[in-house]
Amino acid sequence: MSRVRLGCVKYLNAQPLIYGWPGEVLFDHPAALCQKLAAGELDVALVSSFEFLRQPTYTIIDDIAVAADGPLESVFLAHRGPVEQVREIALDPASQTSVNLLRCLLAERQLHVRFVPEGGEAQLLIGDQAIRFRHENGSSWQYWDLAEQWKRDTSLPFVFALWLVRPEVPNPGAIAEQLRALRDLNLQRLDEVIAAHPEFQPAFCSRYFRERLRFHFGEREKQGLRAFRASCEKHGILPPHHEPLRLV
Predict the structure, then answer these.
(1) Among 55, 106, 138, 149, fewest CB within 10 Å belongs to which?
(2) How far is residue 57 CA from its own chain's centroid?
(3) Shared domain check, 86 and 201
(4) Which of 123, 139, 154 represents a domain boundary (last residue)?
């Protein structure tokens, strides 16, 4: 089982899902992992949920996700002044999920902005970079938390990442069981997971893992994913598609 070619996002938020995996793991940014998974260079990867919506040929490992049911603190628009007055946003291209979530949230508010690679008056930040930015800059910026805005709009959690399996991978059920068991073990030993990452403040990690993040893919998370798909279709980001989720 440990010989599976497995990739995982290189962010703190994934550690309760991958810490202690017995085999090799390729850690990279979400966009790079999506490319490797699509090219057949990986068998299984924890990647942006938008990748499944864009390419629904993959199988989702059920009951595991990186999700939020309210404020997350690591996916946000950093801005000064009212969001309604922002005209240019610098995007972090590492995660298509966060970029397209931002597009949906802005479109729902009929806010029209120009996206630029750098130098905008506001910037989308995700993952560890967002955590460090907020700790370093504090109240000198305002933070428009995307998961919090999604919850206000839909009353649903938002799913940022999923374990996806390529269709030709043999015995995906056994891989799924091992990953679910690892998640369960890590949630029981969170203090050990936190101690393994001393570059982040333990108090922040404890709040982040225990209060901000959700690591299950239950019915409400599935509703949230379907709602994201519908929003992407509504705003022309994705074409209409109604194939059911394939789970293992």
Answers:
(1) 138
(2) 19
(3) no
(4) 154
